[in-house]
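Box 3.1 A note on notation
Throughout this textbook, protein chains are presented in two layers. The first layer is the amino acid sequence; the second is a token string describing backbone geometry. Keep the layers aligned when reading.
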Amino acid sequence: MLALAAAAAAALPQDSGPGASLLAADPGGPNADVLGPCLRTEAAGQRGGGCGAVSPSGVSWSYVMPQHTATGTVARYLTKKLGIESCHHLHTVGHPSSVTTSFTFVANPFSRMLTNAAFSGVLGNASFGPVHQVNNFRSWVLSLEAPHICGQKAMHNYFPDVYVGHVETLAADLETVLVRLGYTLPESPIVFEAEHCITSCAEDSVGPTAAGISADTTIPEGVEWYDEPTRRRVVQWFAHDFASFNFSQTPPSTLALGF
């Protein structure tokens, strides 16, 4: 069973980051600001303020945490289920020099921007209908000089030997990586006890109220959030993500929220 899991882990997509030296010449996207929010915490990550540990098999690892890619869910699992006290929920490219391998989970940039809008209070007010919220979202996207979230590929360039899973298959991909690293899991398949958060992810959040979401928060479903100008803006910001992870440049009809 363990051999099968290890073989599955080896089959995970790999995104071998060249490290910070090359990133200085190739910032990972056409917009140099695509890493701004994550560079500000780089020093903290280098001091061990990110999420990482030495696994039972002796591997020094780091978890790459782009915003709105289920990082709260994964960090809570690592700290509460596996007892990894050195995992801190921090969106940083910094990590100790001892790290030799990394893992991450990628999400569609269109979904990430929509969730970031909810996080920023741009949408989700139940007193406004879908049309008003869509207009707010589109105006907000076009008003930004740079996104508030970091490019995923740009972040990976700072880390060594990055294994890439997907938010859509989060539990299975996380289990594969952890077994590869030598962890004994309390259960298989992995089951996340806490709900994914849309706005602020409280330390022990298990639902909308605990996560800082008011009871009347409503994110309209089945609406077209993006028009052509906002679509182009997101594609331009996250060009490397679309190319590297084969995301469609057409916004999906159903956008996953809550990560």
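The radius of gyration is 18 Å. Confidence is low (pLDDT under 50) at residues 1-9, 18-30, 199-216.
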